[in-house]
Write a structure and sequence with these properties.
- This protein is an alpha+beta fold and 208 residues long.
- It has one domain: DNA primase, PRIM domain (Alpha-Beta Complex), CATH 3.90.920.10.
- Helix content is 20%, strand content 18%.
- It contains 3 helices and 9 strands, in the order E-E-H-E-E-H-E-E-E-E-H-E.
- It has helices at 26-42, 69-86, 154-160, and strands at residues 2-3, 12-20, 48-51, 57-63, 91-92, 104-107, 116-117, 134-135, 201-206.
- The strands form 2 sheets. Strands 2, 3, 4, 5, 6, 8 and 9 form a 7-stranded mixed beta sheet that branches.
- Strand 3 and strand 4 (57-63) form a beta hairpin.
- The radius of gyration is 16 Å and the shape is globular.
- 42% of the residues are buried.
């Protein structure tokens, strides 16, 4: 597992987890990831994708060290609430499992101090030992499901790649809040000045 901050404070991802409830099809999780990507791009961020090693996907946007933990959490919560409001039959933003049957949780709680998320290329303690594997966006489709990449085939996948799907992750980092870049889901934020630690990325995803 990893914490979404570096000790040096130089790069900070925004992490979005998509956690599917019972009965959610993989095609719906794919659509959710693409919507998160679109919304992040509308906010001026660059979105990267990986499997969670569980049931879903993680969408991660690298940030430069400007916004602190409360600001990043507020941003990701606003996105999650907006997605749930726009498509209430598809998404929820509350953690309660009773409300998640047939829906996808937009898990913004990875973006708070002390929270952890599975690190890229890490295996999960599951039956098939699936790996949380970085993907390029053009790989996102029915052929690579949530447990397709495991400790048994991950080395051959890496060897066959022309380049790391996340090769430009750190150079893509930008500030979370940029003047002149309004977004349809981002409200005005008040910066918290009593917390001087920072998040290095935001993450939304279909996790599990």
């Amino acid at each position: 597992m990893g914490v979404d901050a570096r000790r040096s404070g130089k790069a900070r991802p925004d992490h979005h987890g998509l956690d599917p409830g019972a009965g959610v099809k993989w095609s719906a999780i794919i659509a959710a990831a693409k919507e998160v990507k679109e919304r992040l791009e509308e906010a001026g961020l660059v979105a990267f994708l990986k499997t969670s090693g569980g049931k879903g996907l993680h969408v991660v946007a690298p940030l430069t060290p400007k916004a602190n933990w409360p600001s990043v959490k507020s941003f990701t919560k606003a996105m999650a609430v907006a997605m749930a409001a726009d498509a209430p039959n598809s998404y929820v933003s509350t953690i309660s499992k009773a409300q998640r049957t047939g829906k996808i949780l937009i898990d913004y709680l990875r973006n708070q101090r002390g929270a952890t998320a599975v690190a890229p290329y890490s295996s999960r303690a599951r039956t098939v030992a699936a790996v949380s594997a970085p993907l390029s966006w053009d790989e996102l489709g029915p052929d690579i499901g949530p447990d397709h990449l495991t400790i048994l085939n991950m080395s051959s996948r890496v060897a066959a790649l022309d380049h790391d799907p996340w090769h430009d992750f750190h150079t893509a980092a930008v500030p979370l809040f940029s003047k002149g870049k309004p977004s349809r889901f981002v409200p005005r934020f008040r910066y918290e000045t009593n917390d001087h630690s920072y998040s290095r990325h935001t993450c939304h995803g279909a996790t599990g």
